[in-house]
């Protein structure tokens, strides 16, 4: 029987667990002796841990679906400084008993709210050309459907269903408050850039079942892929509005997308050369880093320590906790 | 006679000019034939250009003071793509006829306003320890006097009297609007970090007459120099408040300062390891870059072109102008 | 009167010259005293040298057109190790007396020959999809016209009218002989990649009068710009042939274009991930470097030395001459 | 009994195998419990996989020789994404039943053919000095014997007995077809450079039993080691021919060798400064990369995927397969 | 019963051992099956090896103390090229039977000797200001106590109790003999820099029980941390001596400390800008590298080979042994 | 008439000078107007300054020889922060009135002393093989003659006749005092490495008249060039001594030479892999840097400032002067 949920970030070593997790990844592997085992990444909204089910079979493997819920029983332990679970039993989750709020995926309500906020922010723009262009995207159900579904990444920031939308809206909110502080920054330009900068990820990534990269995603990349969509929408917008989309505005918009990685070393084919491009790159970086590091802190298993374990890709440990005296 | 001012960013080639400039730099140099000439950097609030006065003497050189106003007559021309002026006459500026608003230095009223805003932002903090510490800085007239006088740099961003204060307040305003968007960010910590991150520049730079680096500034640097001031103020604050300043809070504050350059390559002895340190580094970068690039665009002499000339230190040209359709 | 031509690479110091050059660049500049002079880059097929005409005027400046022929009289001299000419007179060139063969621009016959060779190489492909796609480009007169006119760069390799076509055909010839040596390499794929890899330069550069970058060229870049053209042509080809262009083939082709700069540091948004992409990157590099360095050797003014002067962008000197004993 | 061979690149998971492999590497290791096991790298001409024999002894270990054939029985499985085999029995291979063609080592016939082609290409040179020098190498049986035996590397490209010869001849073939396309390139110089650039590997590597590095190879390296051999041969050639080997030709040849790694970062003591050195570096890179990547694609175990697994040293995955429509 | 000691660098595979080791690290870990084991780093003065005790418990784990002696019985084996020991029994070491000389920690006599030598070298300085300042440090028992206890690092050079003192004295000895060879170098400045450059490690590291980093150590770092101590001591010295410590001397001293990592990439906030700072950086590097590499050679398990195994952090293997013919 | 010498480092602006200098470089250049002038680098033992003689001719140019003495009259001035001299008259120096001690070249006595010290240090070695090898070099008059004549560089450290010998002996002295402090370091190995590491410069550089690079120097480089000399001498030594030079010793010696630049980025084909190679690289760096920076400080024209002007190649300014209180 399932009792009160123990969230991942509450788990200590040697706890007996029997509750539902969202499966983020599954692999059937052989150990050195040739025996198969199932390795799962089990998540809820507070973090993730690895589960190991010994003596697995193809049947067991096929019965599990990434992106779905699974009831898992077993015991936690620490392995190489990471918390993991020795799984003793898995079974389908009773959907009636799942509280979607417990999981890291954004709830349907939240998705709806984010979608509404996106619409609101875009419709609040003053530039008639950008407004008309935004409308063409907003009424494209396929585009909006994918934008709502996609994660913002496979492993790094916002790597969950709905994560792309969450990142875009969060970045637009930052643009909205920062732009008024700099007279030279054009808010609408920034909002449109924030809306589209990562939109290529809807085709770069695959996420209807498992998260991964599409062939086009790997060979071309989201920075370049979104451009032809933008071209189509601009043509559509011109037709609908009966006005020419100013070529320079179009250039500036494409430049925002093409340069948003900010440095050649990160695969950016161009350096930011407009004020909005400079701002978009740094604020995108801010939004992604703050999310990632907060996540790293939350998921860190070295519970009692003030420090996370060493993060390879960022090249450092992080110091957890809140400043003393903060309210 | 001085007519209506022609601002630096309005000047074209081959204009005859007779008006007041603020002298940012002066040098007495010999040409290849051994004849002396005076080279001046003449500025107003819209930009700067180089002035050359042939056949100068030590006396002429000594009569000019950097950081002061000077009436300059001559003719503009373009030299290697930069606008310069062949100066034919210089004389002391008639102080009664100077409109301080025309020059890049912040006006006295603006300084007062910035100082008040700084006080307001600091006094609005909720963390009692940081509040008490801030008060110790605010009542230190020598410290506040220097903070009000200092530039934020010699050549780069905010390189004018009052520029340090302007940068600090601008950055604090950004922190103020961004922090509420991220639940994990502590606003007071960020505000205090923004207030102190560059405060070491009051002793790193020299600016009572000419802008330059002090010996300590070159050998130690502002990142490290400010720490002993902070230590003194923390001791003072503890004495005044009768409460211990939490050691972890002190560490977090010092870390914000020590890591704000963000990468080893920029002379940062530590990488940012708290959420506030990550945010401070990126927002500081944002504030400095937006100011610099906006300035580069304003000062660019290639007036009719949509592009600035190539900027060596940032490794690119910039695309000027506003997005078409913006309001 | 114009006698027998002295080619640029035959010129020594202190020669009196009166003959026709092709003007590659012109600038009206002021010297330190404010006097204007005209600075020209004078070229023929063997190299280029700088010409200085003192006491120039706007009228003189406007009378000269880059990309056109000009009769120039003056005296050569060495300045900072570079040969230059003090120009005493310029006048329009008598077009009847110009032997186009003397100049670095490819002759009309050569352009025709290169165009025919390009067609021949493309029509020799076996892959029906690529063949059909190539045909769509070949019949597009505007595209082919620009491809015939454009240089391959502003300063670096093949920086002359027709240079882009020359580089493309030269690279295709290399691909043609190298591919058969590696069983895994697909010749047609390589030929198509060589044909299109730099085709974006027809819109990245401006070259109807002076060589330069278009706004789109600077903000987006040729690597990305050509993709929408390719998309249009693929659609056209599908319509004409009535067959679907295989999506994977399309991806591979776009990948060849997107990755041809080979490394992130050179603004490549993707690293080469197919065998053809690896080969195209290295052979493109080979063709460009061999042309540039051969040109640097030809144009080098330090005539009697076995060494060219130091080349900043390649970070070295080059050793001129042929190996002893070669035939 | 051994049936029809299953090549390494045909193997899937959970296959029972009993056939001959070429042993590329062997190690006796202890697991965490202190039990010994034998780890083998088993290869044929299509790739390699790891074999694990549990409960091994020193005797078993000594009975296996790297570089020799071994009959191996066991079952395949996937371990961490790599195909491996749990070996249940090993025994000496029945030499009568080995088809040398099945293994990656070049066949004796192929070695002979490569040697003849090398001779042919060298004897086709026109430069009498290089021709005479080449002859001195060709008649040196010890040198030629080692050149025929050596691999071109331990792990990277052409890492098999005869691989050095195969790489050299392949590179010479490329030089032969590319040089005629560039008037300034000297074919003979290139051929001689291609012949000798990696010849130092005959002493840098050890390969009479196992592949490895000699002490000299590690401390000095092949780039430098071959130079004294070249010096000896030039002296010999001068004596035989009675003509002085032109000192400049000698310098150019040594420069080709010394600079062929092309960049300081790859341990090149000099950057390429002649046209031939530039071409040799890029074509060497081309030949090595195409071989390596084609090999990575062939050996990749993720059979059904279009992508190889991530390659650490090249920093990317590769996209397998042929372009659709190719013939 | 404990017989004659087998030093770590004498151990081969499959030896039965029962003797005392100094425990440098301990970890309680779970294997994949969830069973706990104890992993120890066992050291003596000749090197270290890993010991594994299967089926451990919390009680066993708590009974072991890092930094203390432990009697260990078990069998050696090689695992992934490293020598390790399968431990079968541990028990407290009989302190009466421990010969402190056998262990890598400096003996008490050695510590005393190093402390005396430090004092001697400092008291031998001629500069009265530095002499007085040194005295203030020497009489500070808490400071000297920590300086005597601390290691110079966690993993790298001199990572043992007393290692910091050993490194400082060793570096001062080098300074003492090198300075007289360069007329421009100030010996006292160098000695004082060598004394204080790493003194911040007494608070950066934790070492009363286990070696680690303090929070301040990670967030601020030893380069910066020591400065406030130096400031306090300078004030003390001024009070004691009644003379002002020359401000420039103070700056030079702080600069020596702040710049001793030598390059931005190593977290140095400043590059060395005085002759003494240049020398201190290079000689510090020399002392640390020679110690580390000698240690790597001593500890290397690949006994019979002339080469150590590949060292990740230094990016190479090392060639062991003494030059033939040396005495 | 020549009065008391004013040394280069004593010169201020606007001094009238008439005295002898050593000419380090001469160039005949044209100014923009085509008039020729002679540019000289005038040196004495304390530094160098540029001299400009207007309206020069080929005859004047040919009358001056670099590396020789010249009597020069003119007036000093500062140009772009560098002291230079407007030369009004040059004439041959009266050799009877030249005090060789005044010039940066090492005096004949000093050369003799350095040669004797070199001999002494080499003959003091204990290793019989190295001793015998050293003897073969010492008796080679051509080799020793060049070693005595050569500079250690063209522009950087020890760039004067005899500079190579001075650098070698200075480095050997450092090795002599440092080696005894590290038990693992072999002094003789280090001494021999210091003796030979830069010996290739005797053929890499040209210095019988003007300093420059030989073709071989540029194409091959001193690191590699010296190896064949060492090979010849080892053969000679074996013949003389009748003993085999231990191959490993030979390898270690070659490795010292090949790796002494220490990092790939500096053109080192190998990283240091023996203790002696690590020490030699760092001490060589120390000796070269201390010499260069001391020289930069001495030659700096910004006399009254505590700082040298910015040094491009070292990327910083330097802080001049001695520590206060030093004796």
Give your account of this protein's structure.
The structure is a homohexamer of 327-residue chains. With 327 residues, chain A is of the alpha+beta class. In chain A, 41% of the residues lie in helices and 18% in strands. The first copy, chain A, contains 11 helices and 7 strands. Chain A has helices at residues 58-63, 108-123, 128-138, 141-149, 163-178, 187-196, 201-204, 215-219, 222-241, 247-258, 275-299, and strands at residues 16-30, 36-44, 47-54, 69-79, 82-92, 205-206, 212-213. In chain A, strands 1-2-3-5-4 form a 5-stranded mixed beta barrel. In chain A, strands 6-7 form a two-stranded antiparallel ribbon. In chain A, a hairpin with a 5-residue loop joins strand 6 and strand 7. In chain A, helix 2 (108-123) packs parallel to helix 5. The longest helix of chain A is centred in the C-terminal third of the chain and has 25 residues, at 275-299. Chain A is elongated, with a radius of gyration of 22 Å. The two termini of chain A are 39 Å apart. The model of chain A has no long low-confidence stretch (mean pLDDT 89). At the A-B interface, helix 3, helix 5, helix 10 and helix 11 of A face helix 3, helix 5, helix 10 and helix 11 of B.
């Amino acid at each position: 029987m399932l009792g009160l949920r123990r969230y991942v970030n509450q788990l200590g070593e040697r706890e007996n667990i029997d509750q539902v997790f969202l499966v983020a990844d599954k692999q059937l592997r052989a150990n050195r002796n040739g025996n198969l085992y199932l390795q799962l990444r089990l998540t809820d909204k507070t973090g993730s841990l690895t589960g190991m089910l010994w003596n697995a079979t193809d049947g067991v493997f096929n019965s599990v679906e990434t992106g779905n819920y699974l009831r898992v029983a077993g015991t936690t332990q620490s392995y190489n400084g990471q918390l993991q679970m020795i799984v003793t039993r898995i079974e389908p989750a009773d959907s009636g008993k799942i509280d979607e709020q417990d999981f890291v995926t954004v709830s349907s309500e939240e998705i709806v709210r984010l979608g509404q906020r996106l619409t609101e922010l875009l419709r609040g723009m003053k530039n008639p050309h950008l407004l008309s262009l935004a409308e063409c995207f907003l009424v494209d159900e396929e585009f909006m459907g994918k934008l709502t579904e996609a994660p913002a990444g496979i492993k790094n920031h916002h790597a969950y269903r709905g994560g792309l939308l969450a990142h875009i809206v969060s970045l637009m909110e930052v643009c909205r408050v920062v732009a008024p502080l700099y007279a030279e920054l054009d808010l609408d330009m920034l909002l449109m850039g924030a809306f589209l900068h990562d939109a290529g990820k809807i085709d770069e990534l695959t996420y209807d079942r498992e998260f991964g990269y599409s062939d086009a995603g790997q060979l071309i990349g989201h920075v370049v892929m979104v451009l032809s969509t933008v071209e189509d929408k601009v043509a559509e917008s011109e037709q609908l509005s009966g006005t020419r989309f100013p070529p320079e505005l179009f250039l500036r918009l494409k430049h925002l997308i093409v340069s948003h990685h900010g440095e050649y070393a990160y695969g950016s084919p161009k350096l930011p050369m407009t004020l909005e491009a400079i701002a978009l790159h740094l604020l995108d970086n801010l939004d992604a880093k703050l999310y990632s590091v907060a996540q790293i802190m939350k998921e860190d298993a070295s519970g009692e320590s003030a420090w996370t374990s060493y993060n390879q890709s960022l090249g450092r440990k992080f110091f957890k906790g809140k400043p003393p005296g903060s309210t």
